Amino acid sequence: MLPPRKASERSSSYTVRIKMLCIILLAVLVVPGCYTSEKTYKETGQVWSMGYGEQELVPNDLPKEKYYIAGYNTGTTIEGVLDSPYVKALWLDDNTGRGGIAIAVIDCIGLSGTDIRKIRNRLSTFSKEAGARDIHIISTHTHAGIDTLGLWGPTGHSGRSASYMQLLEDRTVLAVETAYSNRQNGRMLYGSAETGPLQRDSRPPYVYDRSLYSLRFVSEDGGGGIRIINYAAHPEALRSKNKSLSADFPAYLAAKIQEETGDSTVFIPGALGGLIMTERLKDKQGVEYPVEENVVRTGHILAETALAVDHGRELAPKLVSLTDSFALPLENIVFAGAVAADIISHRTVSGSGALGLALPTQVSYLSIGDLPILLVPGEIFPELVTGGFAGAGLAANPAAANPRTLREIAGKDELLLFGLANDMIGYIVPPNDFLVHPSRPYLEEGVDSFGRGHYEETNSMGPDTAMAVAASAERLFERVRNGER
Questions:
Q1: Rounded to whole angstroms, what are the CA distances from 198 to 191, 299, 326, 347?
Q2: What is the Cα–Cα distance from 75 to 158, expressed in whole angstroms?
Q3: Alpha-carbon span 294 to 198, nearest angstrom
Q4: 409-448 pLDDT per residue, tens
Q5: Phi and psi of 26, rounded to 5°?
Q6: Do residues 240 and 280 lie in contact, with contact meaning Cβ atoms separated by under 8 Å?
Q7: Cβ within 8 Å of residue 175, ≥6 positions away
Q8: DSSP state letters, 95-147
Q9: Which residues contact 251 (CB under 8 A, 6 or more apart)?
Q10: Environment class of 427 (CB within 10 Å of its CB; exposed 0-12, middle 13-18, buried 19+)
Q11: Which residue in 111, 210, 224, 349 has its CB near the most CB atoms, within 10 A?
Q12: Torsion sign over Cα 202, 206, 210, 215
């Protein structure tokens, strides 16, 4: 045992410790980064990392069990499988140290924010372990899928299947985890091409984006690549009488690209409100192809366009992912009733407007390299993105002011639009052309003085939606301009 120290020795030791603490404190205050927990990040990474995972979304008990087809008539049951819907997931990381993002794209009519939050909650542990900064979940909007919203069941009843929603949730989680496990390093290339007279707009003014946008990931090891195809058209090439389960034309687009290149392909819808769809194709004699052939040909035309894209622009490994959450006023009494009756899974909060209700929702912003992308939670009219609003001789509500277009808000002509992202809030209609039936609003479509039907309004949340989405975009781009990542 050591002898006790003298008082003078104890005093000297105490003085030394005080001096050392002062030196450490001075270093913390004066020297940048010394003894601080704040992380430092690279501005741009050296290389992209990307991964892909997919899971089939066909229930084992189809067609024995009743599943309702979503998109057209209520109460229509699925009788067979034409092709398999999938959930396709991506992992993307710029390797700057900020973490990556996951994007899951599901072949379905749409998912409520409530269901998407459930999936994110299931992935919370994964997010912490993988360092995911965001998880974005997008619907392709196929009109030949199983009802995931609840609107296409028998009258007064939900069309949702609890077992199918559980299957969808489970397999989305697995697809995201698989995408992360399959990540590899590589380059990101970008290009676009016009598709010619393939689309049609069913509601004047005839405004829509004719371009197909393609992001192509090329791995360093020369293995199969990954493509994101962004295109503005409803996947409903099978039309309204179809009773077979299908992902519609995105299935045949992806299959053709994989056959030709080995690349995995994810389809993401663009600004398809208003209503933008693909034409019914005809043979040389002018006879329409059967819908089962029409959907294949439509997918192959899009694949040929995608394969011809010049991916001459390389995107630097720099990723931005921001989200703006807000409460959207709900004025559609049909949707409000469906929420109250638990027909759809959306959940409301107190809000402004005639019903005093609002839906929690979000708009998100991505940039991949210098390519800006806005993720909008519904079917947005193209006029709200690029301009070309109905004029005084056509607008049903000319006194109403429209918001600035999303490209004006972005401050640049180039802006990709990912629709049906992170929620499904229905159609997003320009205020100056918003019209509901005078005595049966949202129950029947209104008809304006020009004889145009206003179907889309019956499937919207109300007249304030476009302004709310634009205001959210304004907040996001202000954050972008402030350098937030």
A1: 19, 11, 36, 37
A2: 10
A3: 12
A4: 999 999 999 999 999 999 999 999 999 999 999 999 999 9
A5: -65, -40
A6: no
A7: 53, 54, 55, 87, 88, 89, 104
A8: SSSS-EEEEEEESSS---HHHHHHHHHHTHHHHHHHTEEEEEEEE---TTEE-
A9: 83, 84, 85, 107, 299
A10: buried
A11: 111
A12: negative
Q: Is 313 left (phi over 0), alpha (psi -120 to 50) or beta?
A: beta
**Lookup result for tokens 């011809």:** 308
Model pLDDT for residues 107-136, shown as the tens digit of each residue: 999 999 999 999 999 999 999 999 999 999
CA dist 355 → 113, 333, 456, 473 (Å):
20, 8, 20, 25
What Cα–Cα distance (Å) separates residue 147 from each residue in 110, 153, 177, 202, 287? 9, 8, 25, 24, 32
pLDDT at position 224 is 84
Please answer whether residues 190 and 214 qualify as being in contact, where contact means their C-beta atoms are separated by less than 8 angstroms. yes
Q: Alpha helices of 182-315 — where are they, by DSSP H? A: 249-261, 291-307
424: left (phi > 0), else alpha (psi -120 to 50), else beta?
A: beta
**Distance, first Cα to last Cα, the chain:** 59
CA dihedral 120, 121, 127, 128 (to 10 degrees): 160
> What is the full DSSP assignment across 223-253?
---EEEEEE-SBS-TT-TT--EE---HHHHH
Cα distances (angstroms) measured from residue 104 to each of 176, 224, 420, 470: 7, 19, 12, 24
Tokens representing residue 40 in the block: 């430092």
Contact yes or no for 332/460 (Cβ under 8 A): yes
- Neighbouring C-alpha atoms within 13 Å toward the C-beta of 297: 15
